[in-house]
Amino acid sequence: MPELTTFDWCMMIIAAAGIGISKSGLSGLSMVHVLVFASIFGGRLSTGIVLPMLIFGDICAIRVYGQHANWKHVRRMMPPAIVGVLMGWLWMHWLDESVYKPLIGSIIFGLTILQIVRLWRSEWQANLPHSVWFAWAMGFTVGMTTMLANAAGPVFGLYLLALSIPKLEFVGTSAWFFLMLNVFKVPFSWTLGLIDLQTLGLNALLCPMIVVGMILGKAIVKRLPQKIFDSLILAFTAIAATRLLLG
Asked: How many Cα atoms sit within 13 Å of 123 on the Cβ side?
């Protein structure tokens, strides 16, 4: 790992708190930690550094929101997501790092546009979220983006948003889904050399800030009306996608 400056540590503390906030339901904010850790460690190495912290955040989210999960959506999305993880793992053996952020940004931006179209012209795609091919396409995209860049929160958020599920169900379903998917990713990140004792030590130092972020995020989500919650998910996701596209 590179030598870390005081500024790097400050940014990582903020990003760790951002993980906690994103795990409380504001999934678009997950791009904060993606961008911060990628800028410090590079896109490839940062995926392994962040992964254990995401798992810790998922566990915290389950303790708060896990009882609200809709398991139908978890079961529907998990098989294509696993296929996407495997494909992403293969790509990471030869894909140039400079391709990572524009590729993920393009995918997320396209899906954001799709969801905005649904909100304005819902009759055009009334059955789209409930079709098998749509679930498989979204699930595969989630798997690819989470393996390549830990950037699948906005993608899965868009899928759940398309189903118009309540915000507590949104958070609980996301928490269980990503806990299982992130644990599944660990051996693949380990074989790529992206997780070791040094990175785990860094994780241990930053995890308390995830708890702080969860507490803050829970207070925010509790006070947000459903319509504002949905609008913020879209806004944060669009901003994140634009930032990735611009590099």
From this structure: 0
Write out pLDDT tens, residues 186-234: 999 999 999 999 999 999 999 999 999 999 888 887 777 766 766 766 6
Mapped onto helix, strand or coil, the DSSP state of residue 127 is coil
Residue type, 240: A
pLDDT in tens, 68-77: 999 999 999 9
Cα distance between residue 148 and residue 136, in whole Å = 18
Largest CA distance in the chain: 54
Report yes or no: 77 and 142 within 8 Å, Cβ to Cβ: yes
Q: φ and ψ at 195, to 5 degrees? A: -130, 130
Spatial separation of the C-alpha atoms in residues 247 and 241, rounded to whole Å: 10
Would you say 81 and 143 are in contact if contact means Cβ atoms under 8 Å apart?
A: yes
3-class state of residue 12 by DSSP: helix
Is residue 101 within 8 Å of residue 38, measured between CB atoms? yes
Q: Which parts of the chain have pLDDT scores under 70?
A: 1, 27-29, 31, 97-101, 103-105, 107-108, 111-112, 114-130, 226-227, 229-230, 232-234, 236-237, 240-241, 243-245, 247
Rounded Cα distance, 7 and 213, in Å? 19
Amino acid at residue number 231: S
The radius of gyration of the chain's CA atoms, rounded to the nearest angstrom, is: 17
Residue 134 token pair: 């749509």
Per the CB < 8 A criterion, the answer to whether 91 and 173 are in contact is no
CA–centroid distance for 5 within its chain = 26
157: DSSP letter: H
